[in-house]
DNA sequence: ATGCCCTAGCACCTAGGA
């Protein structure tokens, strides 16, 4: 089973690029971020016509996540549990950044699609929100680990895990994507026992999943690796390969992110 | 030191992105 995560940066601007990619790459499951659309505005029927089951968690204008799957999707949940409560109910839930579903094939696999807050400028309230969100993700990750089932958390983490994951790490020193607290929060989740799929298959620098639109970043290969797959041990047992489809960044009207893939023996 | 560029929206500027 081939599963890709892809921050498409707006479904309205990217529908042609998305359908071209689906036709060409034929993922069994596509985990999408930044659909920038409400659920009712998402082109569900056109994707269903391509053979995909479609589940979305959108909002107007920004954010928004979705899962497309050729196999049935069950037990869909929307939103990351644990939003700020105590009279401030739902404060952290106004942003549509998280969706889960179980893909039912030979093996049932729990798929968690996430769009982690950017957090800039840091420090500040947006950075505080990012770190709180990562705390909540840690709690959900603990539950997934305790379930001892094949599960993966995939998406745009907005985290550069290590210096070799940026072409110019010095440019990111004080950025919310690379600050020590951000990287530590990511490691805290990984260290529960998750496999970071890409790094279990590939070492070294020069592997990126995002290139800014500005200043010719793609042409200079000035990228960062911020889109990740974390696998529970039961899911890591199924891992055949993980790779980044960087060529997509060179297509017509591309997203600033590219698809990251896992191939699972399932 | 700043902006470069792109998307969406009660749209011809602004907010947000990373």
Automatic annotation (TrEMBL):
Ribosomal protein among keywords: no
Pfam families in the cross-refs: Exo_endo_phos (PF03372)
InterPro entries: AP_endonuc_1, Endo/exonu/phosph_ase_sf, Endo/exonuclease/phosphatase, ExoIII-like
Keyword Metal-binding included in the entry's annotation: yes
Keywords: Hydrolase, Magnesium, Manganese, Metal-binding
Cofactor or coenzyme needed: Mg(2+); Mn(2+)
UniProt-annotated site: Transition state stabilizer, residues: 158
Residues at the site labelled Interaction with DNA substrate: 257
Site (Important for catalytic activity): 227
Molecular-function GO terms, alphabetical: double-stranded DNA 3'-5' DNA exonuclease activity; metal ion binding
Active site per database record: 115, 156, 257
All copies of domain Endonuclease/exonuclease/phosphatase, residue ranges: 4-257
Family recorded in the similarity comment: Belongs to the DNA repair enzymes AP/ExoA family.
Protein name as catalogued: Exodeoxyribonuclease-3
